[in-house]
Write a structure and sequence with these properties.
Elements: E1 28-32, H1 38-45, E2 49-54, H2 57-67, E3 73-77, H3 80-86, E4 91-97, H4 100-103, H5 106-116, E5 117-127, E6 137-142
Parallel strand pairs: 1-2, 1-4, 2-3, 4-5
Antiparallel strand pairs: 5-6
Helix pairs in contact: 3-5
Bound molecules: S-adenosylmethionine.
The site of S-adenosylmethionine (SAM) has 20 residues, from helix 1, strand 2 and helix 4.
């Protein structure tokens, strides 16, 4: 099964892997812009309880068709700003692998992420800093 890599799209195995997320057993993990669900499907095998949010209904359908859904792995169609505004769930780890943090105003998104992270929780994300940039930037932020 695919490993989560923070630069997984273009340069497999060149970046940190899921070990930077720590022991995921029993942890609530949220992916912002979960796409095909591959990252969360892998993290669920490590014991995480995973929620993926993607703005595209086709991504939820594809993820559920490929990985199914259950208490340890669920997918939601929603803009991440709306999701984070409306949910009352808390998360131990929030990830975005070339996902919604790349496409969303950080001034809007980051305060919402902060509200939903448990104390000591992690925000881990990757994106290119500028269009066409060849090198992925990987970030880990601890609350
Ligand atoms: C480049 S794909 C990466 C998908 C996945 N993270 C991966 O590693 O394969 C970016 C995803 O972010 C989603 N996305 C972009 N902006 C979003 C937003 N504001 N809210 C939710 N999802 C968003 C897109 O629909 C797309 O599926």
């Amino acid at each position: 099964m695919q490993r989560v890599g923070l630069d997984a799209l273009d340069h497999p195995d060149h970046g940190p892997d899921e070990t930077i997320l720590g022991d995921l057993r029993g942890k609530q993990v949220l992916e912002l812009g979960s796409g095909s669900g591959c990252n969360l499907a892998h993290l669920a095998t490590l014991g995480a309880r995973c929620t993926g949010v993607d703005i595209a209904p086709s991504r939820q359908a594809a993820a559920e068709q490929r990985w199914g859904r259950g208490p340890e792995l669920q997918f939601v169609t929603c803009d991440v700003v709306d999701f984070l505004t409306e949910t009352d769930a808390d998360f131990d780890v929030i990830i975005s692998i070339f996902g919604a943090t790349w496409f969303t105003d950080p001034a809007v998104l980051l305060p919402l992420v902060l509200r939903r992270l448990v104390p000591g929780g992690l925000l881990v994300f990757s994106h290119n800093d500028e269009p066409g940039a060849a090198t992925a930037q990987d970030h880990v932020i601890r609350k």
